[in-house]
């Protein structure tokens, strides 16, 4: 019985494209965010969640976002097709987290973007993309979360060597993470 339910849900995802959750996420995060701003190397410097409160970590994950050459755009378009989520004509950018372990192409021109996974790494057809949200905090910081886990956020920075005081000044400007528990990364 459970396997039938999973099969039905997978088929619905294939037929319908975006889920209701992804539609709501895209509607709620429709403010424009130019992909040119995202280009560069970003570091995960803070994590926020309702229940987290972990000690600082020296772990310092970097995410490289680069302009997507036309041959890569075409490779993704051919593999994924275009649908309601994946619009490859919005100046997509390549996303590389953990030195190639998580690779894909970010599409969309708003804060809500869709990460199309690298076609060579897709295992299940239903997992070909993921809804994500990127909010510009200032020129050096972005707040990130997936549409599926909106209460688990990550602060991304162009630098990895900020002081705790600098980070707290930035965090103080982000209303939606106030009263959340935290964990610092890239800690000295």
As a percent range, the share of strand residues is 25-35%
Radius of gyration: 17 Å
Largest sheet: 8 strands, antiparallel, barrel
List the quaternary state of the chains.
Answer: single chain
SSE pattern, N- to C-terminal: HHHEEHEEEEEEHE
Total domain units: 1
In the predicted model, the low-confidence regions spanning at least 5 consecutive residues are 1-16
Q: Taking strands numbered 1, 2, ... along the chain, how are they ordered across the largest sheet?
A: 1-2-3-4-5-6-7-8
Shape designation: globular
CATH architecture: Beta Barrel
* Topology-level CATH name: Lipocalin
Average of per-residue pLDDT values: 89
Structure, described:
This protein has helices at residues 2-16, 20-28, 35-38, 70-80, 164-171; strands spanning 40-49, 62-67, 93-97, 102-107, 112-117, 129-138, 141-146, 152-157, 181-184. The model is unreliable at 1-16 (pLDDT under 50). It has an eight-stranded antiparallel β-barrel. With 188 residues, it is an alpha+beta fold. The protein has a single domain (2-184), classed as Lipocalin (Beta Barrel). 27% of the residues are buried. The protein starts with a helix and ends with a strand.
Write a brief structural summary.
This protein is α+β, with helices and mostly antiparallel strands. The protein contains 5 helices and 9 strands; from the N terminus they run αααββαββββββαβ.
List the topology elements:
Elements: H1 2-16, H2 20-28, H3 35-38, E1 40-49, E2 62-67, H4 70-80, E3 93-97, E4 102-107, E5 112-117, E6 129-138, E7 141-146, E8 152-157, H5 164-171, E9 181-184
